[in-house]
Task: inverse folding
């Protein structure tokens, strides 16, 4: 009985220490620059949804940013419903976030630590497109997912940026 209590106490102490470390860890926000009409955005939406769902309980939030005057709340809502995106989709018609993060194409992701506002990763979601109009048959690199895994496990990032491929944001 005593041994069981000591084991339980040790387990509870370990869980509390892990929870305390998680609370002190800086949360992350992934800004995803998207366009309803960009075929590449449409194509990577499934991967994006799966990545957001995978990290939803690990201190990682996602925000879809639409840097276009043509984007409306209705078109964003339709896009989110069609691709089952589990995160907020916001307008950036004044290009404030686009300029702040120097986004140039859709889709492009920027991963930011919330406390320090430090950009940890920027660029591609994965390597599904090697160029506009040139889709790979097999996706072999999951840049965003790998970066988020490194960050949530407090490892050194193996890659901090990639050159995004997509539809040009008109500034």
Result:
């Amino acid at each position: 009985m005593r041994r069981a209590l000591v084991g339980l106490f040790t387990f509870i102490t370990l869980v509390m220490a892990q929870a305390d470390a998680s609370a002190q860890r800086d949360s992350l926000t992934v800004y995803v620059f998207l366009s309803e009409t960009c075929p590449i955005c449409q194509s990577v939406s499934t991967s994006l949804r799966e990545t957001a769902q995978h990290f939803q309980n690990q201190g990682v939030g996602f925000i879809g940013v639409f840097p276009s005057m043509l984007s409306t709340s209705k078109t964003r809502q339709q896009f989110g419903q069609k691709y089952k995106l589990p995160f907020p989709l916001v307008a950036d018609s004044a290009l404030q976030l686009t300029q702040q993060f120097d986004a140039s194409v859709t889709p492009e992701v920027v991963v930011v630590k919330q406390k320090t506002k430090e950009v940890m990763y920027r660029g591609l979601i994965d390597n599904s497109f090697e160029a506009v109009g040139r889709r790979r048959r097999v996706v072999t690199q999951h840049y965003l997912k790998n970066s988020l895994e490194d960050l949530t496990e407090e490892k050194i990032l193996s890659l901090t940026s990639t050159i995004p491929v997509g539809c040009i944001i008109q500034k």
Summary: The longest strand covers residues 60-66. The chain has five helices and nine strands. Residues 2-24 form the longest helix (23 residues). Residues 26-168 form a domain with the Glutaredoxin fold (CATH 3.40.30.10).
